[in-house]
Every structure is written in C-alpha cells, then in structure tokens.
Amino acid sequence: MEWILFDKDGTLIEFDSSWEKIGVRLVDKLLDTFPVHDKEAAHRQLGIIDDKVVPDSIMGSGSLAEVIKSFDDVTGQDTSDWTRDTSQELVDTREPDNKWIEGVQDTIQELRNEGYRIGIVTSDTKKGVDHFLEETNTRHLFDLVISTETHAEEKPHPKVLDPLFNAYDVLPNQVAIIGDTPNDMKTAINAKLGLGIGVLTGVAKREELYEADVIIDSAKDIKKVLEQYEK
User: Fold this and answer.
1) How many CB atoms lie within 10 A of CB 169?
2) Could you tell me which residues come within 8 angstroms of residue 207 by beta carbon, excluding any fewer than 6 positions away?
3) pLDDT at 96 over 80
C-alpha cells in the first residue's frame, strides 16, 4: 500500500454539527421554494425529524446526486440546479468545527514517517478544507486534497479520485480509503482500491459499513490493519 486517503468529517475530525444544520436548512428552503402538500411527510421522507438529520437517511449519508433525486421525487419538479446552488451557498457560509479525533493526527504523522503518502477525499468544499488545515496548522501532513465543488464528481463515483491517478504513478490496488460512511466504502469498490476501511467515529453504524474490508473503532487504529495487510 502506497497511499492512504482519509475522509474528513467523522474520520479525521469529530463530525461537524454545522453539517446537520445545513441539511435541515436545505430541506426547509426546498419546501419553501417548491411547496408540497404535506411538509411533515416530506421531512420524514428526506430524513429530517424534530429538526435533526437521521444518520442513515438520504440527508444523513446520501450523495448530492441522490439528494437531488429525492428532492425531485418529493416536489415532482427538477430541483437539480436549485439544489446545487443552494447547498453550495449554505456550505460557503457555514461556521465549521475542526476538532481532531483523539490520536488520529499522531497516527498520520507516523504513517508519513514510514513512507506512506497521505490524502484527503471529502465532500466538503476547498474553502472548508482550507479552513480546517489552516485552523489546525496541519496542511503539511497531506500530499493531496480532493474536495467537492459544484458540478464536480463526488464519492462514490470513481472519477472523484482522478486528481490522484492523473497526477501520481500509482495503481488503484496500492491505495486505501478510510471513512465513516457507506459512500466511502462504495468509493473503494467502484475505484477498485486495495482496501476500504470503515471507522465508527462518524455517522454510520457498524452494520451500515458492511461493504468495508475492515471496520475499526477509529482511524488511529489503522496501522494495525496496514501491518496485517502487508503480511
């Protein structure tokens, strides 16, 4: 294994509560812009209950493309442009939390010392990732950052990893991805990566990460997995 790609929220840092607020606000704005007969039923269908996001719902773990399809189903209209523009606006104006999960930062430094290349693959925007790296003074830990902008491919589409494979001479089976959602594991499968490693520090439960090659409690435990893989 040559490259280790980390998801950000829920994997490197504690899940950012501002993402939940964005999900709730996005659905509220949707139902104000595209009125439906039963708002309560629409909230439940999209995964918003008591102003909170249900973790395994479309708003809790779905990709933007999946969210758009669900919005279209709820409203009976094409919401694609509206959803992309509005979600981007909400992301750009959020106030993120950036608290490293205990032990993960030290583990990444150890991996670098051992010769691994380290990257981030996140559904956050470049602005959000830059804010995290600058606030925590950890930009030096990462060789590559892949963020998700409007109209760009995102996890679990394999083309999300094009910035890695286009810039570096590395084969998919020499790459591991570690994350806290089913989409992270689907990315590993779709891109034919060497390892998909699930962690339990984010939004998904163990049973939701069934497509992972390995499930560990935290990204700080990844070295044990890599040592077993190398054997």
Assistant:
1) 7
2) none
3) no
The domain spans of the chain are 1-13+97-228, 16-91
For the entire predicted model, the pTM comes to: 0.73
C-alpha closest to that of 2 among 142, 145, 115? 115
What are the CA-CA distances from residue 224 to residues 20, 63, 201, 221, 230 (Å)?
Answer: 32, 30, 17, 6, 10
The CATH architecture to which 1-13+97-228 belongs is 3-Layer(aba) Sandwich (3.40)
Q: What is the mean pLDDT of the chain?
A: 92
Cα 89 to Cα 26: distance, rounded to the nearest angstrom: 10
Q: Which amino acid appears at position 227 of this protein?
A: E
Task: For the beta carbon of residue 37, count every other beta carbon within 10 angstroms.
Answer: 6
Closest by CA position to 104, among listed 209, 4, 2: 4
Task: Flag whether pLDDT at 151 surpasses 70.
Answer: no
Cis-peptide, bond into residue 156, ω within 30° of zero: yes
Q: How confident is the model at residue 90 (pLDDT cuts 50, 70, 90)?
A: confident
pLDDT digits (tens, 9 = 90+) for 21-47: 888 999 999 999 998 989 999 999 999
Contacts of 125 by beta carbon, 8 Å cutoff, 6+ apart: 88, 91, 92, 147, 148, 149
